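Review box. Two proteins, two foldings.
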Amino acid sequence: MLESVASFGPGFKPPSYHEARCTLLKKEVEAIKTDLLEKYKVEWKKIGCTLMSNGWSDGKSRFIINFLINSPTGTMFLKSVDTSEIIKSADNLFLLLDSVIEEIGEDNVVQVVIDSASAYVKAGEMLMAKRKKLFWYPCAAHCLNLILSDIGDISIHKDTICKARKVTVYIYRHSWVLNLMRTHTKGRELIRPGATRFATSYLTLNSLEENKIGLRAMFGSEEWQRSNYSRKAEGEKVMNIILADSEFWAAIKYCFKSIVPLVKVLRLVDGDAKPAMGYIFEAVGRAKDQIARNYNGIQKHYKPIWDIIDERWALQLHRPLHAAAYYLNPKFHYNPEFNAYYEIKRGLYETIQKMCPSPLERKSVNKQLDLFHNTESMFGMDMAIQMRNKKQPSLWWESFGGGCKELQNLTVRILSLTCSTHSKRRNRLEQQRLSALVFVKYNLQLEARHKKRILENELYDPICLSDLESDDEWIIEKEDLVLPKDHTWMNVNECFEVEEGESSKKRKRGNYFNILMNFFN
């Protein structure tokens, strides 16, 4: 900020509080809409987009919905709406969602990803009834978190987490014990906060396993034995869990046999660098197979996990778009193990029927599907074959699907979609002017992150399911935050619609808002 002020030269006078909060902010909002939003609209018109709604409650118990628009170029923050008075009304939620779609353009929106609460479900169905070409789906990441939470209710998982909680609560409640633990674990903590209660529980289990040697050394040390804590009943119970309960450590490993494969899927769908729609169908199937292998094919061990996955998958995630995206992904379609069974083909044709209302267009798409399946036209070229596993599916279709124009347009729209309302830090802010501040800051940061990904060539490589990491970063993902943790830069209490009026004093003007935004960056 100081460099920007200095570059302006002598005579610079900063903007008044009124100018910064009204005049300049409004100008920057309009600039973002003109420059950034228009650029995204070109892509939305060409290949479609996903409308994402992400709800949260602020400190005043108001329920806020953030609306964002996702496409391969990036995610655009649209606006925040206070829905406290309508959150339980499906009719009102439908009207809100419908108005946002109208704002974006019905032909531009392929799908809406929203919450899975009953009011949202009904609103989504009403939306599809009105907008015949539109899909709505619950957030895949939320669904997977519910699967993981359901698994956490299985007795061995629940008992293991309960014991782990006893250990951590006891250690962190007594400062002397906590200091002794840190000495033996070389400063490493046991509690690992995650995005959800379930996440925190399993990250802490993993941390206990990593620090097993240090914890056993601590409770076996002379310092512990000589302390008063070792002679009290509570301390003795915790010590026995760590030193004498061999089942506790075995149970941790047992639990992770079912958790890690699902965590890979969660990391896949909860990222926004690359569209995941073409991968989720296969990823869930692979996760189930891996869980069965982890339990050595013993049905009584893996079947309860499969039942939980199948129940959530059938109710929330097993949708036509997912099946169609799987069928049209060249990485899987040309794999010798590919099997287009009934459910996949039904999902494919339901998607075609919905997205291609013209009978003539459907007929063309059906013929072109045969060319794709039989590797005819450009699909059979050496370069197309070589790039099946090296290029993002939507980009592969843009390169080699030109001989099947109708199918190419349809497929690019499908394979460019996301699956989740990405778990960015929510904007716990006042409405109106704060929404404008978020609009500017959020979109500038999203644009900067997209440019960084282009420079690092992150948009080219396709997703490799076998390479997804399974360590504990799956929930506390190390990513660039869209907004900073500290929101004090937006502590504004008045509403944005306040009349501007005129400054009482004339001053030499410059691009003050750019200077302010340089400071924010």
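Next protein.
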Amino acid sequence: MAAITRLPLHHHRHAFPIIGPSLPLSKRPIPPSFFRNFYATPLRKFSLTPLFCSVPDQSLQSSSEAGSRSIVGDLLDYLNESWTQFHATAEAKRQLIAAGFQLLNENEEWDLRPGGRYLFTRNMSSLVAFAIGEKYSVGNGFHVIAAHTDSPCLKLKPKSAASKSGFLMVNVQTYGSGLWHTWFDRDLSVAGRVIVKASDGSFLHKLVKVKRPLLRVPTLAIHLDRTVNKDGFKPNLETHLIPLLAIKLEESSSEVKEKSAPLSSRAAHHPLLMQVLSDELRCGIDDIMSIELNVCDTQPSCLGGGNDEFIFSGRLDNLASSYCALRALIDSCQSTGDLSSEHAIRMVALFDNEEVGSDSVQGAGAPTMFQAMRRIVSCLVHEYVGEGAFERAIRQSFLVSADMAHGVHPNFMDKHEEHHRPELQKGLVIKHNANQRYATSGITAFLFKEVGRIHNLPTQEFVVRNDMGCGSTIGPILASGVGIRTVDCGIAQLSMHSVREICGKEDIDIAYKHFKAFYQTFSSVDRKLNVD
């Protein structure tokens, strides 16, 4: 296995540890003020600089320099910004536009040119971005990295207001297959999107994030559940997983009457919650027409471990993959000449609803990506009168399905197949399954590993045990959609689907470099192998 250069990193002057991409590693301990200011310090404000790194602009000179710089600090910023799939998509859109990508609308005609860079969003929870090689000719393929923006979480029910034993409660529904016991005793809040009525009668789509701890799901004291450590914690997800919002005040309270006045007594959501949202949005409660909110953990993403080698965060599955893919696309075509010798089309596709099967208009089960591919080919055919331009393009295309992988757990090593135990900090994990729960084949695995070999990037292999079920990804869905060659891979992590997950810091940079090398190198690698 090829060795990887360990990049020197340094903490920024944040309330929580965030690293700078090019400074020497600090050995200083975290000061006591870190704990006092942990929640008091606001999340970092993002600038509109072209490359979004946490270092001065003058150090960002060329794509070759960018390739040797760590993106871990930028990933932490992205995670802290992206509490929901909507925020993750909006931030990806902002970064692409700042990097020079042109925003398209699926409802309008497209005018595309070789050398151009473009993007569009759907539902503000899925995104497709692409860069057309300057040497593109009709029938050439797409080189795609696909990931997803959603993560297991709690979502507010359409009628969330509830009251029990003098508490104001918020009714929620579970989304995906989360480790729900990890959501107990966490400092939680809400984030998502709302529809706001404007003064002219139109409706505005706005994102909202309440950064302060607002909700909590308390556990039952051991004194009232003496056998919990022996029998296990087995909460009823309908009756026990209901967050507390506030103490219920008496009906005669003037404050309650004031806050309740704009809404009827049968409001779907607590007037107090609506007041919090209106304060965040700086609008009247009556102007909020609809809400779609996730419950989110407020603890910031940060570095951890004795040598700061870990990333502790929620939503690593799968925003870590999404960001590595996003940055690889941006940085692989940021400079003049980066697309001058490219014959293919480089693409990133970020989908919603993977955690619940992808069967939605914004999920990978919808033909979003393939409709975009067909439109792109149609825009570029010009005077071409030959046959099967789109079909030939698909046959020359290659998809990297990037979703987090199961790293071996030191306390549960027997849960992994003996010879396929991916480790943190050892490179991307290529996923195999004979029953096609993953779309990897011998050919696609070889091609993707060959890209890594050329650039001295390590890879690992994963196969689930025969006596255990195997999860799946968007890989088989997209591969079978129109017949595109696909490899499933991911960054090794622990605590998958917990409210707080963990992965290795170096694996982020390895994934970014592998994805960037895929865009820059795959055309030449693919030409060397002829299967059919």
